Amino acid sequence: MLAHRTDEEYRIMLQGWLQIGLTLALIVAITPIFGGYIARVYLGQKTLLDRVFQPIERLMFRLSGVKPETQMNGWQYARAILYSNLAMAILLFAILMLQGVLPLNPTGLGAPTWDTALHTTISFITNTNQQHYSGETTLSYFSQILGLGFMFFTSAATGIAVAIAFIRGLTGRPLGNFYVDLTQAITRILLPISIVGTLLLVAAGVPETLSGPIVVPTLEDPNLRQAIALGPVAHFEIIKQLGENGGGFFAINSAHPFENPNGFSNLIQTLAMISIPTSMIYTYGVIANNRKQAWLVFGMVFIIYVGFIIVTAIGEYQGNPLVNSILGSAQPNLEGKEVRFGWAQSALFAVTTTGTMTGAVNSMHDSFMPTGGFVLLSNLFLQIIWGGQGTGTAYLFSYLILAVFVTGLMVGRTPEFLGRKIEKSEVVLTSFLLLLVHPLFVLIPGAIALAFPDQLAGISNPGFHGLAQVMYEYASATANNGSGFEGLADSQPAPTALWWNLSTSLSLLGGRYIPIVALLILADGMSRKQPVPFTTGTLRTDTILFTSVTAGVILIMGALTFFPILALGPIAEGFLLAKGG
Amino acid sequence: MNPIREITKAIRATLVLWLLVAVIYPFAMLAISQAAFSYQANGSPLKNPQGQTIGSALIGQPFTSDRYFNSRPSSTSYSTADPNQDTAGILKTGVSGATNLAPSNPALLDRINGKTDPDPKKAIAGDLPRLQKAGIKPTADLLYTSGSSLDPHITPEAARAQVQRISAARNLPTNRVELLIVQNTDDRFLGIFGEPGINVLKLNLALDNLR
Question: Which of A117, A116, A115, A121 is nearest to A97 (CA)?
Fold first, then answer.
């Protein structure tokens, strides 16, 4: 297929790979700097921002009655998360339902339906940001700034806190205090970067205003009017990306020229959404004092990530064979893509946003070629190609524990990880956490929806792709990603919206809080174990061999669980396209 | 610890954090952005000599006639409506959206090729026949709809394919039109990131301003 390309086309293709490669190089360069900084924050070492934020934190702790020196055990930590998240959820739900009487509502929007408000609340509290509504036509500026914008920070910070508590537990330290970890994730990491990021995005062209939409006559036909939606977008946008949230201010998310106007803003958004999960792996290396292992785990994920980008980008670059035969030449698949991003930046963004559980989109995933659909679904199934804010890092190290157990069985040694014995309760918890929760909340509701395609599913694309639409929605909800094959009729006033709002709400909650509690109990147990001395018989976990075994465990477990869906969805669609539709 | 005290702490912490990140942070950012970047913060408005706003430099508009560079097809017609027939309320809020058509969906080919149907409501004009009639060699961006439905750009190839037609319709030398294309091209960031695009609204405004 590549044999018939002209020199010009080769140049375009190489330029695309160059921009992807340079972005990847930036990601690698940021990791040790940022990861080292996060470790300093949570080890209580001196950092640059101490003088600014220590007094603010002290004031915040006093106002909320938190004694920062109090340690929490696993259950206390988990309860603090559940209580605080519940309080936040009630506040958000109240804001959404009272939207009609609250200020900052220039377009005079009423409250959304109760099921939309409930789904939105659960979706944002769980760091998912699956959206069954359009921002412009459903939510006031008040709801966006003071409701959703609040969750952007707290749900991301909750994830970071869980990861830090988990790392502390694995390395034999007490877990810490949830409120301190939550607050510091905001004051030391999310907020300072968001302030700088807001200004960069505004400078790039992202609006930040309280004015309502502008209506103008169009140039070609003055009788036709254009409504240009505005809003306080920039401050929202940066934390949407940085916190791996992904819930767009506008319906069409980062494809909207006001959310993401050019190559510069797109670079900021790409780096923002991936920097924390990549860096947290390095943070682990610093806290566990084993940077080699951190780089090995980083390398393992990075290789899969790059492979996924290549597969997706090639598919989009080669384009849709059915349309190429109309065009008379192979041209990129630009359906649902913006000219300023093209095939390369769209593919990079899509793989990154599904891998990191951000869920923002700068192009429409439903319209990707089957190769892209295969990769995006695989990201949602695996959950660790960087993974969710904090939780992804914790999953990754849970997989190491599982791999320790598997290799222990193979070589007949007592499995140990970081000098602590892996015993029955650890194995039960990790397998439950990694291998049961996710498929349970994806496959069961998916099967129910597919059993009633007309009454419940609301599929918009016929054939194999329709199956992928349904499974993508539940995988996205359970993995707390939030992107979608958005053709699905999941928003009010569609008749299938009620089903989608309620059924995905269960997947959202199950995919978030069950793993968090399990992770904290696991960490608590590990932190209480007597360290066993390191001997020549100890299985080393910071080797290429062991990391490769871990990668094998991850891919085999993922394939065993989800391959049938991939085969019946994108793979079958790919064969259909190859034979001419 | 007793549960009442834990719950009280959760509520107090929620309110304190809310104050910081949902009140102080956004309104401080609004104030700074409005003061330092007033043009961008208000949506990069394009104004006519009378000072009226006529569009945004970042948002595309529909163009299908011979006198203008045609823009990409859009699933929302670039958030436009006839004010007398705006039953969907598009002009009240503004909209964005995409087709979300899968590459295997027959509706995609129908939209491109057009479709005849005895029921005129079900017939589709098709973008390919429209471009062929206008004498424009179709490019990918002119056949595929964009992600936002507001894409301000077309590709350099799509612009080049329209030069002849514009210069004939407006009686302009082709090099004059080509110069305007170059002047209204948004390049990659640092020459590396993203793809070059021709801002169709700005280009067409520049054409009108030649008079």
Answer: A117
Does the beta carbon of A154 lie under 8 angstroms from any beta carbon of chain B?
yes
Q: Do A366 and B102 touch (CB under 8 A)?
A: yes
Are A83 and B80 inside 8 Å of each other by CB?
A: no
Question: Is the CB of A65 less than 8 angstroms away from the CB of B94?
Answer: no
In this complex, the residue of B6, B53, B102 whose CB is nearest that of residue A461 is: B102
Q: What is the pLDDT along chain A (581 residues), one digit of tens a residue?
A: 444 567 888 888 999 999 999 999 999 999 999 999 999 999 999 998 899 999 999 999 999 999 999 999 999 999 999 999 999 999 999 999 999 999 999 999 999 999 999 999 999 999 999 999 999 999 999 999 999 999 999 999 999 999 999 999 999 999 999 999 999 999 999 999 999 999 999 999 999 999 999 999 999 999 999 999 999 999 999 999 999 999 999 999 999 999 999 999 999 999 999 999 999 999 999 999 999 999 999 999 999 999 999 999 999 999 999 999 999 999 999 999 999 999 999 999 999 999 999 999 999 999 999 999 999 999 999 999 999 999 999 999 999 999 999 998 888 888 888 889 998 999 999 988 888 999 999 999 999 999 988 778 889 998 999 999 999 999 999 999 999 998 899 988 888 999 999 999 999 999 999 999 999 999 999 999 998 888 887 888 999 999 999 999 999 988 889 999 999 999 999 999 998 86
From the CA of B120, how many Å to the nearest CA of chain A? 23
What is the 8-class DSSP label of residue A127?
T
Quote the CA–CA distance of B157 and B172 in Å, as a whole number.
Answer: 20
Domain parsing of chain A, residue ranges: 389-578
Structure tokens at A201: 């995005």
What is the nearest CA distance from A208 to chain B, expressed in angstroms?
5
Nearest to A438 by CA among A494, A545, A512: A512
What whole-number distance in Å separates Cα of residue A255 and Cα of residue A481? 17
Q: Do A219 and B58 touch (CB under 8 A)?
A: no
Of A64, A219, A319, the CB nearest to B201: A219
Taking the Cβ of residue A137 and every Cβ of chain B, the question of whether any pair is shorter than 8 Å is answered with yes
Q: How far apart are CA A306 and CA B60, in angstroms?
A: 34
ipTM of this predicted structure = 0.96
Compute the distance between CA of residue A139 and CA of residue A251 in angstroms, rounded to an integer: 11
Inter-chain touch A76–B1, beta carbons under 8 Å? yes
